[in-house]
Amino acid sequence: MIEMDCTCVQKHHCIPTERIEVSEHAIEKTAEILKNYHRIFMVADENTYEVAGRRVEELLKSAGILSHVLILPAPALPNAENVGKVLMEAGRDRDVYDIQAWSLNPDYILAVGSGSLNDTCRMVSYRLGIPYGVVGTAPSMDGYASVVAPLLNGRKKIVYNCSIARHIIIDLQVNAEAPYPLLLSGVGDMIGKYVAILDWEISRDRNGEYYCENIAEMVLQATAQCVEASKGLEKRDISAIRATSEGLILSGECIAFCGSSRPASGTEHMIGQTWEVMDVEEGKVPNLHGIEVGEGTFTAIEIFRRLYRETEDLHMKELIGKYLPAFDKLESLQKSLHLPFTVTDRERYVQGILRGRTFRDRYTILQYLYDIGKLEEYANAIYDTVMEKHYYGSFRERFPEWRA
Ligand SMILES: [Zn+2]
Ligand SMILES: [Zn+2]
Questions:
Q1: Which residue ranges of the chain lie beneath pLDDT 50?
Q2: HSE toward the beta carbon, residue 68, CA cutoff 13 A
Q3: Is 75 left (phi over 0), alpha (psi -120 to 50) or beta?
Q4: 249-279 residue pLDDT tens
């Protein structure tokens, strides 16, 4: 259990996570970390099995605590089909069929992978009431310690409440070898936190929404840590991988402390996830979460900058003003990192902003602009600004082989 006393109205925050192991060769410690379990059901996909799963399987087997293994075809999207497969394979029938008996469930589910497998397994863990943990294979998103999972259900993407990981095991060697698009996705998911916290502050002041300044501060520090580390990612510098992984995990922890993704997801996620949903609705494989969120972040930044220039609401101006230096930092980060964008078409881009407002029931700057009758005007104008200032090429041009 990770806990902290707090000065906010909640007074205390805690999550059931027992251990977070981020180290070189962390995988070798898996059996020792999970020694209190006896029937561990391990889930990987074809890729993550190769990079980490095979070794984890060996270790658990020789410790005598492995029940069985499921390897999903890659890429294993976090969709209803895969949740169903994991659920169907989770239990093992007893040797003798007994109509009165339940199947023999595992006592632990271990995901080997990153965002998709983690979300798939945590949903099954939540529904079956069995603890789960993850051996993370890429620092690609902040969901390892999170409390919610966005899952694809038919042509919809729905955010479900799910279990929180009991154990998070990040082997830095394995993570340093992760495909570069996944590393960029981790950066994209993280840079949006400035926007998320600003939205949260705005909602606190306008709607009296619950706000915890200690959680907000932790998220902002984790973000600064990731921004700083992102320069070393292309060279796959171990200390950069470590700082990014720890920053992402801390962000997830804050989501769990808060009990909702409020501290880590605002305008940038609402827009980015709307673009993801638009792909899903058209039957396409959605783009990497963090890449969409990164583009959504630059969108949100330009919305805030414009509002800062135009607004006569002094309190709003003051709130936004606090974040302008962070936004400038992200702009210079983008000049060196060239985070690729996925949505380059004006109509789709604008739709993402307009629909993004209602992606979920969460007050953001999009709702504020809608209420003052300016959302459409902003959405159209911001497209030009973002493409002119922050666009350095599309994801497809840069990574033509990715899930092609
Ligand atoms: Zn608090
Ligand atoms: Zn995210």
A1: none
A2: 12
A3: beta
A4: 999 999 999 988 999 999 999 999 999 999 9
CA of 319 to the centre of ligand 1 (A): 20
The confidence score (pLDDT) of residue 403 equals 80
CA distance 148 to 259: 9
Residue 298: the pLDDT is 98
256 Cα–ligand 1 center, Å:
12
Residue 274 alpha carbon to ligand 1 centre in Å: 30
Ligand nearest to the CA of 211: 1
Q: Which residue type, as a one-letter code, is found at position 230? A: S
| Model pLDDT, residue 146 | 82
User: Closest ligand to 212 CA?
Assistant: 1
Pairing of strands 66-72, 40-45: parallel
Burial of residue 380 (number of CB atoms within 10 Å: 0-12, 13-18, 19+): middle
Percentage helix, strand, coil for the chain under 3-state DSSP, each rounded to 5:
55, 15, 30
CB-based neighbours (< 5 A) of ligand 1, an ion: 6, 8, 10, 212, 214
User: How far is it, in rounded angstroms, from Cα 297 to Cα 358?
Assistant: 17
Of all ligands present, the nearest one to the C-alpha of 185 is 2
Ligand nearest to the Cα of 288, by number: 2
Which ligand is nearest to the Cα of residue 14, counting in written order?
Answer: 1
Task: Identify whether the C-beta of residue 178 lies closer than 8 Å to the C-beta of residue 138.
Answer: yes
Count how many residues are written for the chain: 404
